Design the sequence.
């Protein structure tokens, strides 16, 4: 096969993307070589098992994917505002809405939140690292190569074009031949390995590595949300694994699970997909709730109202999330009884969610609110999310859903919950914990510009879409030259560009703050308002996190520690700290699996088998690897701590 | 973190690292339960959708499946004996019973491969109908797990030869025993809900 056979040709926009990717690639190679950074890249980042560095890599990748998915969104909005311009053709439009959805959920929202969990959860519970640091690196690289595989699809082989839900029979071999859908299947499968491993890893970390004295109901609320999320991950992701595997086997090996021949059942895909897919939306919203709870308590300077109720409502949400999947396809014809059951279970979820909303409001009640950037994102979340939640209940009414189904009303609904919930939380969490990660804050003035642009852009973009939906505009529509729809579509596009502008200001702020922000001198970055253990250690965080781990027997332990003058450095109690060694194995193992997946995408079995053998070989090497890390000597800890604390 | 080491109790539980590894594996088995549950559900949904291929009642035979069941259940018992020997501190006993376990597992695998080839000759392949796709993937996923388990156990047998019983090697053997018993449990479900029901209906 010749290289030109697999390159996507004939699209000026894609040629442009190819050229710019090549230029960025050459520039990166040049910079790394010119500044002699190759060794640094390998020994500090590619081989790291440090949860903080892995978290940073997750967040960087997620920001990159937010950019890619955002560009997809802009292109769709341009097409919809100027339908006669011929900006995109129908095939390209199909590919773009597919990659936009998949990237935003799988390669943006989840890695962003998992990145924050990576960095913050061990710090909040007083742990030195994850339970399984090697596995954590493995998780990241499986996500990374899955992401890379999915993203190269638009220049090599062609992107998937059957929607992010990839419904059969459309996504089967008969109706979508070629590598496009295979990219979707293999990219998600590969990164799914990492997600499941992270779920197990964080669960064990939280259950077994908490500071002495810290009971489950002493844990910070973000850690609680992570624990509940991990529970959902462990029980939902295997369903996706099976669904993707079955469709892959259908497409590549000719099985009949979802086909129209051989008595296959295309509707089974929708069930399997949403049995994972609905818990998945709670995987990306519960950590967001956790972040907002932390930010609101910190800047309202009060203990979170109704801590126990908050935890229990998350647990109830997690359980209910497995019992509502049919509401994604009420119109498929399951019958009145089944639809009614799932309608009721869907509306039940509104109860614990409503409880959480009231608890946030009660936390704010009569408090002295400090309007920092993370707090602005959190305050904006509450009313915006309620708009999304209430329209969700409307969609949950099975009879009414026959009107709303697959219209822009639905599009507006889930963007209101996913952006106002998850994306706002990602920004809030990143700005909030930024000083812990990088040793300086993000500039507040630029941060507020980014916030207001994004916030107004968001509402201008998506609020009109509710009305477009009620006017009958269906989703995934390429030509919208119906005169009544045009004004609202233009307004929506203006809003989308507002959000894009906000994102640019946000990214510029990263650079600006790196250059000009004051460096942090204390660990308690937000005017001494920190409540939980992550603020108790120094900034930047030493690689062993805590010189001595404090005894914790209450919620918000750092407040009393400050009152009593205690720190995480009690000089007479310092002992050697055991740390894991860095290793390049996870990177290499996952590179081999990435190669195997790439081979399967094009059905080049030799490449696939070669990659698999390489991966198995790396696993065997791992089994014989008895490196159990090293000890940080007491002297080094004392030296580091004294320097960081100015003692 | 694994600084402190207990002086009593089973070797594999004496370090925090060991405890965490075992707990992590239990959670992983929870995920495996979901994975197999999904495959069982798929099989149940596609039951009877045989299209032009033979019916399961025409192909399933009690004899060979009973032998397979006997082999695998016995291997679970010998695997338990291996861990019992490990707890007694006997490397020799551990290796002996583990090798017997693997031999039984290989026997099971041999019969399963023979069975699959036989079905294929009779016109029931993964491509012939939705039912047979579901059957082969469900039973095949179990078979793949057994294969991986055998390969994994061989690696561990080499390591115990090299290093003897330590916190780490005993943890590894304890974990693979959990895995092996789990595969046994899955097989019981396959035996009853796939083969026994398939023979009758």
Sequence:
């Amino acid at each position: 096969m010749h290289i030109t056979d697999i390159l996507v040709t004939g699209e000026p926009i894609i040629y442009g993307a190819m050229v710019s990717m090549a230029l960025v690639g050459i520039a990166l190679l040049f910079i790394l070589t010119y500044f002699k950074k190759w060794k640094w890249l390998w020994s500090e980042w590619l081989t790291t098992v440090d949860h903080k560095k892995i978290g940073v890599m997750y967040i960087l990748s997620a920001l990159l994917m937010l950019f890619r998915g955002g560009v997809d969104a802009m292109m769709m909005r341009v097409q919809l505002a100027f339908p006669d311009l011929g900006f995109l053709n129908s095939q390209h439009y199909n590919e773009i809405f597919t990659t936009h959805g998949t990237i935003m959920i799988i390669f943006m929202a989840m890695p962003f939140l998992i990145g924050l969990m990576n960095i913050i959860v061990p710090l909040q519970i007083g742990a030195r690292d994850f339970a399984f640091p090697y596995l954590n690196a493995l998780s990241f690289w499986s996500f990374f190569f899955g992401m890379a595989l999915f993203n190269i699809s638009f220049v090599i082989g062609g992107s998937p074009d059957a929607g992010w839900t990839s419904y059969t029979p459309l996504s089967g071999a008969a109706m979508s031949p070629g590598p496009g859908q295979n990219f979707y299947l293999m990219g998600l499968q590969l990164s799914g390995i990492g997600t499941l491993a992270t779920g197990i890893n964080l669960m064990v970390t939280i259950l077994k590595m908490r500071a002495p004295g810290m009971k489950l109901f002493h844990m910070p609320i973000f850690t609680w949300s992570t624990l509940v999320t991990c529970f959902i991950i462990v029980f939902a992701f295997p369903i996706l694994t099976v669904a993707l595997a079955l469709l892959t086997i259908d497409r590549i090996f000719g099985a009949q699970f979802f086909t129209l021949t051989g008595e296959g059942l295309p509707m089974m895909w929708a069930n399997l997909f949403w049995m994972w897919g609905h818990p998945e939306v709670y995987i990306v919203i519960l950590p967001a709730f956790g972040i907002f709870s932390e930010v609101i308590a910190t800047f309202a300077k009060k203990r979170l109202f109704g801590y126990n109720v908050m935890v229990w409502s998350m647990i109830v949400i997690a359980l209910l999330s497995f019992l509502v999947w049919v509401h994604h396809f009420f119109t498929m014809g399951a019958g009145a009884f089944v639809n009614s059951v799932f309608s009721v279970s869907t509306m039940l979820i509104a109860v614990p969610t409503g409880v959480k909303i009231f608890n946030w409001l009660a936390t704010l009640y009569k408090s002295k609110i400090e309007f920092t950037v993370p707090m602005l994102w959190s305050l904006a979340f509450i009313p915006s999310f309620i708009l999304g939640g209430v329209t969700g209940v409307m969609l949950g009414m099975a009879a009414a859903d026959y009107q709303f189904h697959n219209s822009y009303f639905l599009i507006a609904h889930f963007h209101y919950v996913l952006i106002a919930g998850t994306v706002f939380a990602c920004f809030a969490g990143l700005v909030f914990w930024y000083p812990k990660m990088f040793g300086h804050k993000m500039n507040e003035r630029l941060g507020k510009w980014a916030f207001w642009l994004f916030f107004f852009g968001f509402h201008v973009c998506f609020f009109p879409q509710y009305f477009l939906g009620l006017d009958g505009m269906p989703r995934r529509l390429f030509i919208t030259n119906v005169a009544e729809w045009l004004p609202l579509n233009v307004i929506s596009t203006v809003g989308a560009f507002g959000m894009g502008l906000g994102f640019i200001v946000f990214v510029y702020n990263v650079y600006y703050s790196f250059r000009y922000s004051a460096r942090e001198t204390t660990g308690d970055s937000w005017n001494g308002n920190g409540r939980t253990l992550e603020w108790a250690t120094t900034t930047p965080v030493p690689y062993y996190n805590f010189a001595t781990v404090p005894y914790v027997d209450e919620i918000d332990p750092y407040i009393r520690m400050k009152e009593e003058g205690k720190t995480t450095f009690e000089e007479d109690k310092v002992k050697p700290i055991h740390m894991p060694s860095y290793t390049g194995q996870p990177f290499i193992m996952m590179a081999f699996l990435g190669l195997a997946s790439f081979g399967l995408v094009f059905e080049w079995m030799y490449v696939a088998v070669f990659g698999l053998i390489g991966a198995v070989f790396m696993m065997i090497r791992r089994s014989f690897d008895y490196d159990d890390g090293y000890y940080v000597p007491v002297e080094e800890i004392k030296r580091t701590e004294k320097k960081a604390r100015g003692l | 973190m694994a600084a402190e080491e207990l002086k009593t109790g089973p070797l594999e539980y004496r370090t925090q690292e060991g405890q965490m590894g075992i707990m992590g594996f239990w959670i992983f088995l929870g995920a495996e339960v979901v994975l197999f549950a999904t495959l069982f559900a798929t099989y149940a949904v596609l039951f009877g959708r045989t299209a032009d291929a033979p019916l399961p009642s025409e192909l399933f035979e009690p004899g060979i499946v009973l032998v397979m069941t006997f082999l695998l259940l016995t291997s679970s018992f010998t695997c338990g004996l291996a861990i019992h020997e490990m707890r007694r501190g006997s490397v020799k006993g551990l290796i002996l019973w583990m090798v017997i376990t693997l031999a039984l597992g290989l026997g099971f695998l041999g019969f399963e491969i023979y069975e699959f080839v036989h079905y294929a000759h009779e016109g029931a392949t993964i491509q012939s109908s939705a039912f047979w796709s579901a059957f082969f993937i469900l039973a095949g996923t179990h078979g793949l797990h057994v294969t991986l388990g055998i390969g994994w156990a061989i690696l561990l047998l080499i390591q115990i030869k090299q290093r003897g019983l330590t916190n780490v090697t005993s943890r590894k053997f304890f974990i693979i025993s959990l895995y092996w018993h789990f595969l046994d449990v899955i097989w019981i479900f396959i035996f009853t809900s796939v083969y026994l029901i398939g023979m009758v209906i």
